[in-house]
Amino acid sequence: MLQAIDDSPEEQPSASPHLEPCINSDDSSSEYNENFLDDVYEEDSWSSDSDYCTNSAKQCYVKEESSSLSEKEQTILFLANMGYPVEEVSIAMERCGPEASLAELTDFICAAQMARAEDPYLPEDVKPKLNHGSGGYKKRKMFNQLCKSKKPRAIFDEETIRLPKPMIGFGVPTESVPAIVRRTIPEQAFGPPFFYYENVALAPKGVWDTISRFLYDIEPEFVDSKYFCATARKRGYIHNLPIENRFPLLPLPPRTINEALPLTKKWWPSWDPRTKLNCLQTAIGSARLTDRIRKAVEAFDGEPPMRVQKFVLDQCRKWNLVWVGRNKVAPLEPDEFEMLLGFPKNHTRGGGISRTDRYKSLGNSFQVDTVAYHLSVLKDMFPNGMNVLSLFSGIGGAEVALYRLGIQLNNVVSVEKSEVNRNIVRSWWEQTNQRGNLIDFDDVQQLNGDRLEQLIDSFGGFDLLIGGSPCNNLAGSNRVSRDGLEGKESSLFYDYVRILDLVKSIMSRQR
């Protein structure tokens, strides 16, 4: 069902309904989470109570249906009557084992269907049509969320855009570009200011065409951060920055799991082929799941059988679990998130911020090394520093990238809905002894023409407008309201466009 993340230059989306990836958009507020089922996954819903209920339902049903069938045949009949294809039920039973509960079987089938439906390279005629069902049976909480009485939109019939392979945009420092990249920037897109917009690459069909059309028909630059660090993060960027003479942040970050987390190397089994992590999300795997994996692996001397390996690897890829002891996996710690995403240690720690908030904030952030590579062209252009308008600032990925490049931040206007994130940025600003001014807003809609004109008058205009609007209604993880740019949160993209146009207009009048 899944391939190792490094099997090909462009890995396929994981079976996890969280993978876009929140994406989790990088600089969107944690109030606009890329992963709308976060709370579902904070606890393991494969509890013994759930298994007991579903097994009891199974026993009652099959007793009425037929007492002459084998247990396997009864299970197949039960799930077939619920609407699951017989061949998919058979595969699930083979992969999950004869002792698997209905909760496990339905989860496996649902995850497999999601992975195939989300695969942008799978032919449409072999993609599954997901059956959301309406029975009175009990399933995992996640599955119930996906099958609410409000029928989800038929999002799986939408093609995702064809992404480049490898996903290296106009070039990355670690990969050679086969040909000289040439692009044309329309005259009306020239600055000031420079602008930089980011969002998830795997958006519904037509979304990036629309984004490009509103941003002067500039071609998106699609980049996977796995070429910069040890974790994937597929994003699209539209900007009017030069693409020549870029340079990376030094020292270069570790690019494999074992390099980034060297203590894992001792315990890494030979049958786990991962060298890269999948996109870091806003939620983590539960203790119950990691204990279940430990017991599954410990039950065998030597290498576990293929069906156990398959289960373990699927869960490890879904939740970015790493090996921390003999037969022991664990989720990444917040400080490991920070390191992989290019933030300073303890960037999100302290100040009353909970672990849950840290994961949510980091899961929605920029990968700093990737963004800094694109912004590096600004260093020689602004030797005396910059004025920055940072929209949907999140935890300050843009500000950290510019600071790490050695670009002085004279004035930063930061717009971020989440108070937690605003506090993180403010704390970082003070601890790094920034000499400029940090001005906070909590709502992009507060930035009307009058307010922007006052700000521009006060310090002479902006040199860079940067940010990524919320991706809630764009990310593949959203099975309920993937409404594209017309969705409640993702429609804030149009505020990015509105503010960019206002800034350009006001600054052109004052020149």
From TrEMBL:
Keyword annotations of the record: DNA-binding, Methyltransferase, Nucleus, Repeat, S-adenosyl-L-methionine, Transferase
InterPro entries attached to this UniProt entry: C5-Methyltransferase, C5_MeTfrase, SAM-dependent_MTases_sf, SAM_MeTfrase_DRM
The keyword S-adenosyl-L-methionine appears for this protein: yes
Positions of the catalytic residues: C471
Region annotation (Disordered) ranges: 1-31
Gene Ontology terms: cellular component: nucleus
EC number: 2.1.1.37
The organism's place on the tree of life at top rank: Eukaryota
Subcellular location: Nucleus
SUPFAM superfamilies per record: S-adenosyl-L-methionine-dependent methyltransferases (SSF53335)
Residue spans crossing the bilayer: none
Domain SAM-dependent MTase DRM-type: 181-510
Example GO biological process: methylation
GO molecular function: DNA (cytosine-5-)-methyltransferase activity; DNA binding
PANTHER family: DNA (CYTOSINE-5)-METHYLTRANSFERASE DRM2, DNA CYTOSINE-5- -METHYLTRANSFERASE 3-RELATED
Family classification: Belongs to the class I-like SAM-binding methyltransferase superfamily. C5-methyltransferase family.
Protein name per Swiss-Prot or TrEMBL: DNA (cytosine-5-)-methyltransferase
Phylogenetic classification of the source organism: Eukaryota, Viridiplantae, Streptophyta, Embryophyta, Tracheophyta
